[in-house]
Amino acid sequence: MFKRPEHPATRAFTLVEVIVAVTIVALLAAVVSIRITGTKENRVTLLVDQLRDLLTMYAMRSEHSPEPVAIMMQADHGVIGLVRREPPAYQGAESEWARDPSVPWIKLPDFMELSDVEVLADGDWIDIVEWPLVAMPGENRPAIEFNLTLEERVISLRLPPHSIYASRHDSDMRDSGLTPRDPVDLDQTGRWQEDWKSR
């Protein structure tokens, strides 16, 4: 006589298993969303740190290098880097700007445009795509300011002529409704004798 084979009974998920699975999926979704939202801020922080290092190397090279150094931006690659003046390869040739091999180039994040980076030298805007920001050996270095515009926020890196470290200044335009303050020359404005301690 032919006997039908027995099939194992199909088993359903218990309520506890469903709750555990939903909890695991919710935790994974929370971790991924935190990483996605935090990534942009992390990339901005990394960019600011890299620019500070670049400015430090620029200041050190301008003090100790026998050749001129400069900061340049390459628009086609979206990078900022340190270049130095190479002596001519042969007599009669012109010297050229060459990448400083010991300082890596900084790639702008994909959410930033070239116009989001503003460079000032002694308070005057300079286009470092067209003209490098040059420091000549033995000469005074200009006061340099990098302004990074990110939506309603501006991060400024300021390198005074006498320093090798850039200071960071953050401004949130949404909260204050103000623009960053400009430095004031007290001698030119005739305010050098005012008593600032009482204010």
Verbal overview:
By secondary structure, the chain is an alpha+beta fold. It has a domain at 15-65 and 109-181. The protein has helices spanning 15-64, 173-176, 186-189, and strands at residues 69-74, 79-86, 96-99, 106-107, 117-121, 124-125, 133-135, 144-150, 153-159, 167-172. Strands 1, 2, 3, 4 and 7 form a five-stranded antiparallel β-sheet that branches. Strands 6-5-8-9-10 form a five-stranded antiparallel β-sheet. Strand 5 and strand 6 form a beta hairpin. It is elongated. 12% of the residues are buried. Mean pLDDT is 81; it is low at 173-178.
Q: Can you summarize this structure?
A:
Helices cover 29% and strands 25% of the residues. It is α+β, with helices and mostly antiparallel strands and 199 residues long. It has a domain at 15-65 and 109-181.
What is the element layout, followed by pairings?
Blueprint: H1 15-64, E1 69-74, E2 79-86, E3 96-99, E4 106-107, E5 117-121, E6 124-125, E7 133-135, E8 144-150, E9 153-159, E10 167-172, H2 173-176, H3 186-189
Tally the helices: what do you get? 3
Beta-strand percentage?
A: 25-35%
- The number of distinct β-strands equals 10
Low-confidence stretches: 173-178
Summarize the helix and strand pattern as letters.
Answer: HEEEEEEEEEEHH
Report the average pLDDT across residues.
81
Bin the helical content: 25-40%
